[in-house]
Design brief:
Rossmann fold, alpha/beta, 22 strands, GMP Synthetase, Chain A, domain 3, 4-stranded mixed β-sheet
């Protein structure tokens, strides 16, 4: 592969929303031809400017993508200064920047985002102006699909951390006009959220599913007085039962979006709601098993590998994200767009609680498995904390007719069916659930002593 200098202009089309919109009318072959060219440009730039990739892909410069080694977050952070293509960027300087005033750009040219660190140490990622514009267009694509117009009034409830990707939602510009926009933090109390929203009167809501669920409760209690035309959710898994409850209460459809700090949104729903379209002109997504082998459509993978086609400052080629997804085995979406559909997003590998079987082994139970218990209960949301003294189950919005013994019995049967030792279980009714630093509400909390 050629390692000549690749100018920024060669990836600027992704920073132009009108150009990106044209991609939606491509044939599948046109999309694949574009991907091949964009990947070539991405790799060429990395090989010319990143000492890390020169070593990491040594002897593989002409090999196809699926033969390249997999990159993980720990490796990115360990070799940060060698991986970035700007020799002025140093991780030590970035850490000082993140500890101080983040209202200005790092080195006057980079916007910085940080992962939550839920799977280990936080990851730090950079976008220059062009990369930032490309990432913004992935947000814009999903929102345009949902029907946002210049006349919309948008309210977003985002992470309180300034370096978290949700806190850096781009200013929406539709038909040359800035869309009225209110940004609130997940740390704001439900009462204060209601007050702000009642005053602003949005017709579009962007929020984590757990926040949308809280606001649905407020609507049903008669305290929230807004009329929405569309709800965008992302950042957490969206259980079908929660989706149904929210959509029925508001009388609108949810447009689910899926992404990562490292790449911004990588998939979003269109109005057909047949799954989430992968934004394959921005990012190549490989759905693989534990051994990084491709998983066929219709089967759940152990993780995905992202190759972000517009990244130049900090190239990410076959970057591992431990999300379990299933690619749709069905044909193209009726909307006619050429993008592959994700059928479902099932959560993150390793996000389960460990229990002892009756034969003395250890077995993990995932969020999705617990949902089979809680989806049948008259509650708004749930959370389980595994402590040294057993399980503490927190129920939000539990209706009065739900008896504590019903929940106990449902969980005992759940464990018995799986031949697991039934742990001590305490049921708590609560007005709110525990959130992590980014404002998300994990369904499962591991506090158990080792």
């Amino acid at each position: 592969m050629q390692t000549a200098h690749i100018a920024q202009e060669e990836y600027q089309p992704l920073a132009d929303y009108d150009a990106c919109a044209q991609h939606e009318r491509w044939t599948r072959q046109q999309l694949e031809d574009y991907q091949a060219h964009a990947l070539h440009v991405c790799r060429s730039y990395a090989y010319a400017h990143s000492p890390f990739y020169q070593k990491f892909h040594h002897g593989l410069l002409d090999r196809p993508l699926h033969e390249l080694p997999v990159l993980n977050k720990a490796t990115v952070m360990e070799h940060f200064d060698e991986l970035v293509t700007d020799r002025e960027v140093r991780l030590s300087d970035l850490r000082r920047y993140l500890a101080g005033d983040q209202t200005k750009l790092f080195l006057d040219r980079y916007r910085v985002t940080v992962t939550s660190g839920s799977t280990g140490q936080p990851g730090v990622f950079l976008n220059n102006r062009v990369e930032g514009a490309a990432a913004a267009n992935t947000f814009m694509r999903g929102q345009i699909w949902g029907g946002i117009t210049a006349q919309s009034r948008v309210a977003a409830v985002t992470s309180p951390l300034p370096a978290h990707v949700t806190a850096q939602f781009p200013v929406l510009v539709v038909d040359g006009q800035k869309v009225p926009y209110l940004q609130l933090s997940t740390t704001v109390t439900p009462k204060a959220l209601v007050e702000h929203l009642n005053e602003f009167q949005p017709d579009v809501l962007i929020a984590y599913p757990s926040i949308a669920s809280v606001l649905t409760d407020e609507l049903r209690q008669g305290r929230l007085h807004i009329s929405l035309k569309v709800i965008f959710c992302g950042g957490e898994t969206l259980p079908e039962e929660m989706r149904r409850r929210i959509e029925e209460a508001w009388g609108v459809r949810i447009f689910n979006m899926y992404g990562a700090t490292e790449s911004a949104p990588v998939a979003g729903e269109c109005s057909a709601h047949m799954g989430l379209h992968l934004f394959e002109d921005f990012t190549i997504v490989e759905n693989v098993d534990e051994n990084n082998q491709p998983v066929p459509p219709g089967e759940v993978g152990a993780k995905i590998l992202l190759t972000v086609l517009y990244r130049r400052t900090q190239p990410l080629i076959r970057y591992e994200v431990a999300d379990m997804v299933r690619v749709s085995p069905h044909g193209p979406c009726p909307c006619g767009r050429p993008f592959t559909l994700l059928e479902s997003i099932l959560g993150r590998t390793g996000e389960g609680l460990s229990f002892q079987t009756i034969t003395g082994k250890e077995e993990a139970v995932s969020t999705l498995q617990f949902e089979t218990v809680f989806d049948a209960l008259p509650i708004s949301a749930w959370q389980i904390a595994q402590e040294a003294d057993g399980l503490h189950v927190f129920l939000r919005g539990a209706q009065e007719e739900l008896k504590t013994e019903q929940v106990h019995q449902a969980l005992r049967e759940f464990f018995a069916r799986r031949e697991l030792v039934i742990p001590p279980i305490a049921i708590h009714r609560t007005a709110d659930l525990t959130r992590n630093a980014t404002g998300k509400t994990p369904a499962l909390l591991k506090h158990k002593a080792p």
